[in-house]
Amino acid sequence: MAVQESPWSAAGSVPGPSSCSAGAAADRQHSESASVASASEPVAVGGGAAGPSADVVVAGRGVTVVECPSASASEVVSGGISVPVEGPSVSGAGRSSSVWIIGHSFVHWAGERALLRPGGRHLGLGHLGVRVSWGGQRGMRWHQLLPFLSHFRSCPRRPEVIIIHLGGNDVDSMSARQLVNVIKDDLRVIFAWFPGTRILWSDVIPRPRCLASRRWTRGLAKFNRQVGKWVESQGGKQLLHGWVEVGCGGLFHTDRVHLSDIGWDLLLDDFAVGCESVLGLD
The pTM is what? Predict the structure, then answer.
């Protein structure tokens, strides 16, 4: 079964299904009421062109990643969309470190919020040579991750860090055990695609709107713990979000799914601290 390719965009505006009644309607509502501005510049990963990627089959799942076309040195082609490649670092800190942050609407809106903060989209680490590329797609599901990354794994410049904040839209789609196994299978592929890159698993954040489901209470804590522990056993890192308290309304948007500006700021701080830790900047 061929998997539909997912374009990489600065605004992360590619729609997709999501679970727990937090789908397109909730995202549209959030989009209309959010105070943050859209990104004014295209964002791309890497530092070079993406060449054709070989077919990849995930064992037991029949998932095939189709070949993507080659691109010129000045652009990355993803899902039929040409995205300009980010230019060289202007930092005086020497060699830059590339960080990709990939995920669903939480990454999209966090990236939008980052543009309004003094540190900008580089999480306040730009002066240290850190360059952050945002790959946020609203409604993104876990099965879209490998096709998404397949476009960029041939970039001559590999990222030092990949932060993955994904899986929240899949919590209600299968049992926790099944989802953990699917995530492990795909992360094994990503570790193989990006040797030497530090993979950071960002814990799925609970959603007040979904607390009637046990999968979003005790089940989610166990799920995050199992995935995070496994990622660290493979040389990655788990990003905990200890500030999350579902009973604190000030952390969440009125849709009770996404975060408030305060919540986005705290999530961005976690991303920055994670980067500092694995890059030896702390």
Answer: 0.72
